[in-house]
Each structure stands twice: as C-alpha cells, then as structure tokens.
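Known limitations

Structure tokens in this collection are predictions and should be treated as such. Users comparing against experimental data should check residue numbering before alignment. To illustrate the layout, the record for Ribonucleoside-diphosphate reductase subunit beta is reproduced below. The input appears on top and the generated tokens appear beneath it.
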Amino acid sequence: MGILGTGIKEGLLLKPVTYQWAMDLYDQAVANTWFPNEIQLGEDIADFKKMTDEERHAITFLMSYFNPNELLVNKALAFGVYPYINAPEAHLYLAKQMWEEANHCMSFEYVLETFPIDRNEAYNSHVDVPSMARKEEFEVSFIKRMTEETLDITTTAGKQDFIRNLVAYNIILEGIWFYSGFMVALSFRQRNLLRNFGSLMDWIVRDESLHLKFGINLILTVLDENPDLQTPEFAGEIRQMILDAVEMEEQYNRDLLPHGILGLNANYINQYVKYLADRRLEELGFDTEYNVTNPAKWMAAANDTLQLVNFFESTNTSYESNASASGKKKD
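Generated tokens:
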C-alpha cells in the first residue's frame, strides 16, 4: 500500500513508521513550537511611525496577503491533502502544520493589532487589489476541485488533481509567493528597522521551510509510487503552473512597491521570485527556467531556501522550544 488512500481504518498504527521523513519533520516541528506574544512587537511601533508612506504600505500590503492566505492553506490541507493519504506519520505532521498556519494567522493579527494599520483596509485588499485577488482565485480553484466535485484518488485523474493541489499550495503559495513576501518583510531589518517584527518573521520562515520540505517529499513520494503520473504531458503542465505563478507574482509585486523603497523595488523582488522558482523547479526534478542570481544573498542568514535540504544537519537551538532560556534571546 502506498501513501495515497482514503480508508478510515487504515493508517491507525504509527509503528513501524513507513515514511521516516514525515516522522522526522513532525519531531522537528514540535521542537519548533513558539507563540507570537514571545516577541515584544510593541517596541517596533516607533519605527513604523517614522517610516515613509510607501514603506508602511508595503507592510500593510503584506499583512493583507498573508493573513487570509494562511487560513487558505489550512483549507487546502484539510480538504485536499489530509483525506487522501494513509500514513499516520504524515497525518501527525499535517496536524502540526495546520496548527502552525493558525499560529501564523494569529501572528499577523498581532501585527495588525500592534501597528497603526487600518484593519478594514488591510482585510479588504485581498479582494480589492486585482493582482492579489487573482492569486487568491488561482489557489481557490484548486480547493474547489478537491471539495466540490468527486475525486477518486485511485484513478490517474484523481492522483493528478492531488498533485496539482499540492503544487498550487505547497510549491507556489508557500514555496514562492510566501518566500517573496518574507524577503520584503525581512528587508526592513537590513536597515535596522522593525527588528522584533523581523524575529517574528524568522520564526514563520522556519516553520514554512518544514512545510515546503514535507510537500516536496510528499509530491516526490506520490510520483515514485505512481508511474502512471510520470508522463511528459503532466510534467509540462506542472512546470507551466509554476511559470504562470511567477508572472502573477510579478504583477503583485508591482502593486506592493509601485515606486520602490530604500534598497528595494519590484524588479529586485521579481528577480528573487525567479530565483526561487528555479530552486523549486530543481527540487521537483525540472531544469531551471530563469537562471538568475539571488539578489538577496543576505536572506541566507534568514534560512535561505538553498539550505532546506540540509535543514536537519544543523540545530537551531535559539528557536527550539526545549532550548535554554538564554538560548531564546530575541533580536
């Protein structure tokens, strides 16, 4: 029996573990447990107030996008992933991931509550801003396929829909679009602004790096166990999904930074998006498309995506919940 299936009575015995990578990710995720109020975000209010209108717009725009989309990811997991896999170790990890997405949503609520941001404006932007709404509609279309129609996971067509949903949420939303926003959010700390906000984002990035690793492993496992999915046509479709996502993100970033802020503009972010897309293509076994350099090399210190494959070779004691109090120093 492979990892895909819908039997309720299957997957009730954890040991022996079949997919050790899922168990390892669960253990790491539990060690990484944190809570937003551990960060003294109020210390950043003075920075926020002295920033330019364009800079404040960028933070507000990011919150407008991140806040509802963390909840959207949970829907994709609950309706599009969890019901279609059998392995209990994968279910354990997904349960922790769903809690983390909820924790991220509450983290962005904490930002909205702390900084002088117009909450209604921030909430409405994901509907009112066309480039943001377009990204959301792209994602929603895949959830609809998983929830509003009958999906038979035993068929090739059903398995293809499962992979499409994973690529849409895990590779595109979390692995490219979220990382693009993380880079912008963390760029303020590069200028010694919003340092505590930066620490909050660091913790979110580390969670997301595990989500990404889980999703990539799950996709590759399903492809390995189901040769019927390994066709040039389906591979071409998945590759095109990622390229289309880059084009959507480029427009979004032009709305995020219409004029640019100190050290950052839409072209810079979009080069980073193309760099991210190439990494994701490589991780899925594709050739790269854009072949651009990473313009934000400083992101390596904030858990650069290239380090993901070696994530477990280093311990992040400053982040793990069982670290000593002295090891949990906040920036």
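For this record: The radius of gyration is 19 Å. The longest helix spans residues 156-190. Please report discrepancies through the issue tracker.
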